[in-house]
Amino acid sequence: MSAVLPVEPLTRAAFAPFGDVIEAGGARHFEINNGSTTRFHDLARVDVAAEGGHTLVNIFRARPLAMPLTLAMVEKHPLGSQAFVPLGGAPFLVVVAPPGGTVAPAALRAFLAEGGQGVNYARGVWHHPVIALDRETDFLVIDRGGPGDNLAEFFFAEGERRIVEVNRPAAAAP
Q1: Whose CA is closest to 127, among 55, 77, 79?
Q2: 138: number of Cβ within 10 Å
Q3: CB 93 within 8 Å of CB 113
Q4: What does DSSP assign to residue 157?
Q5: What are the φ/ψ torsions at residue 64 (nearest 5 degrees)?
Q6: Which fold has domain 3-164?
């Protein structure tokens, strides 16, 4: 039987071992453009230069996954960070584990990212592929392109899998 993974609120302090929370709240900020714009400054450490990498800016369109979700695998990017910022303010689920050669199921943590939050997974942090919740969601994704193998996957044995569930009311149709 699979164990249930609790879902935590996404905060900078709780997520710090895995990367950065990308959000305006609590960020260093200042006025630019003759006072017409507030800049929320230096929100994430984009790390893509290893082995000749370069920055990619992408849009991923994620469809919601059925809840409860059985976590069968995680992935990591050993050569660079990977940032996800939802476009349109939709919440999403973040599942992570510390860097390393393998993943202990007990080390998994789940966070609920509200619509105004994004995440930047640090290089080598294990994470589940993007999990949209309420509706199909576009994400601005900043990650690494270039030579080298920047993807590793880890599959849990059936008895080691965890179950995660977010009970949220369905989003109203636009």
Answers
A1: 77
A2: 15
A3: yes
A4: -
A5: -60, 145
A6: Jelly Rolls (2.60.120)
